[in-house]
Amino acid sequence: MLIAEAKQRVADAEHVYTCVAQDLTEMRTAAARRLETLAEQQINDLAMKVKFRVEVAAQKEQTFWSGVGWDHVECLIATNTGEPLKPLEEIASGGEMSRVMLALKVSVEEGGPERTQRRIALPRTLVFDEIDIGIGGRAAEAVGQKLKALSRHQQVLCVTHLPQIAAFANHHFLVEKSEREGRTRTAIRQMKDEERTGEIARMISGATVTETSLRHAEQMLRASA
User: Fold this and answer.
1) Where are the domains of the chain?
2) According to the model, what pLDDT value does residue 132 have?
3) Residue 46: predicted pLDDT
4) Contact 48, 99 (CB under 8 A)
C-alpha cells in the first residue's frame, strides 16, 4: 500500500513538473524570438552584418530535468552572408564576441515589451576589452553610445585605443608603461578634465598634438556628454 501511494505521488509530481517545464519552454521560446530580433539589430549597429538566433530546445528525458526546467538554450550566429548559423563560441573572434556581448547586454537592459521605469539595481561590473578591433568612424561611435547607455544601469570598464569610444567615458584612466631600475612598470591614473582633452587629441593625431586635433577632441567630448 505504501509503495503504491509513493508511486502515485511520484507520478503526480512528474506530471506537475512536465506541465510547468513545458510552460517555461514556451515562455523562453517567445522571449528568445524577441531577444534575437533586438540583438541582431544592436549587433549590426556595431560594424557587423550578422544573422543571430537564440535556439531553445526542450530535452524531455528525465536526465535533463533540473530546477530551472529541461531546456538547452544556445546562441547561434552567422557573421558572413551565406554562411550557416553556428554556435557563437565556435566562430566569433575576441573582438566580435565583445561586441555581441555588448549588444546582448544593451538589448536586455533596454528592450522588451514589459520594460518599466523601475529597475532592480544589481551590483554588476561589465568589462569590455578588444571591443574596438577592426572598427572605426561611425561604428566606433556606435560602440561608444551603447557603452554609455549600458553604463546608466551597470558599472562598465572598457579598454580602448579609439578616441570615439574613450570620449563617452564618465571617468577616463590612462595606463602608462615606463622603465625604472631595469624593470618595466605599469601605472594607471585618472585624468582630470583638462588632461582628458589633450589625451583624446593625442589619440586622434598621434604623438604630435595639433590645434586641429585639440578642437576636434573638445567637440567629441561635448557631443558625448
Assistant:
1) 1-92, 123-225
2) 83
3) 85
4) yes
> Given pLDDT bands bounded at 50, 70 and 90, which one contains residue 118?
very low
Nearest to 79 by CA among 111, 117, 47: 47
Beta strands 173-180 and 183-190, pairing class: antiparallel
C-alpha cell recorded at residue 6: 509513493
Beta carbons of 190 and 171 less than 8 angstroms apart = yes
d(CA 134, CA 57): 34
Is 166:148 a contact under the CB 8 Å cutoff?
no
Element (H, E) at 219: helix 211-224
* Dihedral pair phi/psi, residue 40, rounded to 5°: -60, -40
From the list 37, 204, 13, the residue with the least C-alpha distance to 212 is: 204
Q: Number of helices (H) and strands (E) in the chain: give both, helices first.
A: 7, 7
Across the chain, mean pLDDT equals 88
Sign (positive/negative) of CA torsion 40, 41, 46, 48? positive
Pick the range with the lowest mean pLDDT from 48-57, 125-134, 149-158.
Answer: 125-134
Residue 43 CA to residue 78 CA, distance in Å, equals 12
